[in-house]
Amino acid sequence: EGKGRKRNSLHDFKKTGELMLIKVNKTLEVKTKLLNTTEQCAKRCSRNKGLSFTCKAFAYDRVTKRCHWLSFNSLTNGVRKKQDHAFDLYEKKDYVRNCIIGKGADYKGTVSVTRSGIQCQAWNSMIPHEH
Fold it and tell me: Apple domain spans which residues (predicted)?
């Protein structure tokens, strides 16, 4: 990242081409808007700008240039994947990553056991260790 260059928001996302997520659970939220680029979609999702939910992913319709911000991702219960040639799916890496970077303070993944299979301590528990 050179001086004067802006960081590309797409770096925070994992792209899966020709895939859309369909919500089976009706409580999951979606918001759509016409936007010209995936970079604009990513920036809004990263900042949660104008969204009433935490954006975990977005799907970009290349044909209509419409961004679909999602309150869920491919790992969420009540969601199914659908092959669709018009869409590219972008999921926030923080929510689909199965590894912890650094101390794990920002980890939002789904892994809850250690490499050796021991159940992790809940964040709201001070037993067996204090935080």
Answer: 8-94
